[in-house]
Amino acid sequence: MAATLLSPARGGTPLTGRAARAVAELGERAVLCDLYDEAGAPIYHDLAGTTPHEVRELLTALRRLPGAVLDLAAGSGRLTFPFLGLGRDVTALELSTHMIGLLRGRLATTPPSVRERCTPVRADMSDFALGRRFGAVVLGTTSISLLPPDARPGLYRCVREHLAPGGRFLLTTVEVDAVTDGTDETEIIATGRDGRGYRMIEQWSAGDTTRTVTMVPVEPPADGPVTVATTTIGVLPASQVIAELEAAGYAVRSLTPVPGGGRHHDVLLEAEALR
Q1: What's domain 47-176+236-273's architecture?
Q2: CB–CB of 182/153 below 8 Å?
Q3: Does the pTM of the predicted model rise above 0.90?
């Protein structure tokens, strides 16, 4: 069983190693879901709100860029709310109905002066038309890696069509360092905003173009189903993203390392569409 469990995320990547064993230990109580679907979205939301990762770097860049902000793959608003905190108008674009529902719920609890500056939009970040332009288009949380290669040209085209003159495309991507200890998986304990702990198990072998992350509760309930969220995303080195941006008619104006530990380090790219 442990060798044949399939993640429901993006093509059914097999779960192996620690992830498979953790699910097998739960037996029939384990309910696998995608991290971004109805069952997984609350787990993503619980964890996403606990880290300031890349927020400072993005806010620093945005302070130099006037105008409204388009937050792509906004999720439940991890970056949307800090952008609103700058006093900007923010359009939050998200494909998942479950994620955008969480975002709308959070907005409903904010003061009208904040809520009125945010426009949630359900759309695909590789194919959208909003009829306006923005001083900055942001794609954070290394979410560009969620798009397959044949969808990324659509992203670059849509961003170009929505950037105001002098605007910038800000995006982060993950660099994965070579594995030096002979293993192809890591595990950390992550704590959500509600205090719940999760075993965050990542499967990735050096050279692979995808990595799979599985979230298993540290303390599952004694009875009943146990939700296990998993997702498989691409690994896109900055050099590859820069080459794609340049081929799509952008000039990359800066590359800023985003502090972080482990075998991952993210970078923030700032690109300008050449006209």
Answers
A1: 3-Layer(aba) Sandwich (3.40)
A2: no
A3: no
